[in-house]
Amino acid sequence: MNVAKLSAFLLRRPGALIGLALLLVQIVAILFAPYIASFSPTDADPLSSTLPPGGEHLFGTDELGMDIFSRVVFATRVNLLISFTAVFVSLAIGVPIGVVIGFYRGFLSTVVLRIFDFLQSFPIFVLGMALVAVLGQEIWSVAIVLTLLFVPMFARLVRAEVLSQRERPFIAAARCAGANDLQIMFQHILPNAMTPVIVQISIAIGMAILLTAGLSFIGAGVRMPSPEWGLMVSNGAQQMILGVWWIALFPGIAIVLSVLCFALLADALRDLTDPRLQGDRRARTA
Question: Would you say 139 and 80 are in contact if contact means Cβ atoms under 8 Å apart?
Fold first, then answer.
């Protein structure tokens, strides 16, 4: 798709433009956080505890006197680092597994699927607390938990696509041309099976942001004083009954906007890559 067609597509999809704008805001926050934030995200100032929004502290301060705006900006790095790492590591692991168990049906496929069933049978928060107890309450512990969740998801998605592709005529033609199993799997089947995976990546990043925040909220994720949206909401929830609403509100809005960003981008990618939808648009245009 050339630039002109892509621009026309975006103009017809305001949701895609909103998603791209939100993504751009997050990228700016990640790259230029030290220049955007006026205060350190981890330095406490007891004399400035629970100041309301306004003045020097745009979003106010928390119970320790840390600037909420600075913490929300810097938390973009933490949340997206965990989410992107977990999704792309699980993608790198899950896609090859999905290709193999989809191509070689039988005992191997059954064993791998049962392992996936075992992993997915654990509630994500229970698994998170168990791994935190073993590995410690670190950022990478959260990424490992999310990776264990997403590997089966990507593998099953790719397997379903491979099962639908492996009996098609172009595979028989590749065999007649002398292609071996590895060439058929990764040169012929995999490129044709990646369209739903590309859409799922954006969805998975949004899920990872929510799960990262949820794990931190229950104490199984990032620990203080690291800036992380779910941890900030957890700390602020304890203050809401006292009327200190801003501690939880602004990181909560950041979670909503970030997840909305990737949901809108996933919807746009689905429309952009689905040939059936493209055919419908051409038919309506004609």
Answer: no
d(CA 272, CA 269): 5
Radius of gyration of the chain (CA): 23
State the CB neighbour count (10 A cutoff) for residue 49.
14
Give the Å distances, CA to CA, from 221 to 37, 226, 229, 247.
24, 11, 11, 19
Q: What predicted TM-score, i.e. pTM, was given to this entire model?
A: 0.85
Nearest to 220 by CA among 151, 149, 138: 138
Q: Which CATH architecture best describes the domain 60-275? A: Orthogonal Bundle (1.10)
Phi/psi of residue 55, nearest 5 degrees: 70, -135
pLDDT average per 10 residues of sequence, the chain (286 residues): 58 80 93 90 86 87 90 93 93 92 85 88 79 77 88 91 83 80 83 85 90 85 85 87 88 94 86 59 46
Q: What is the spatial distance between Cα 22 and Cα 10, in angstroms, rounded to a whole number?
A: 14
Q: Name the residue ranges covered by the structural domains of the chain.
A: 60-275
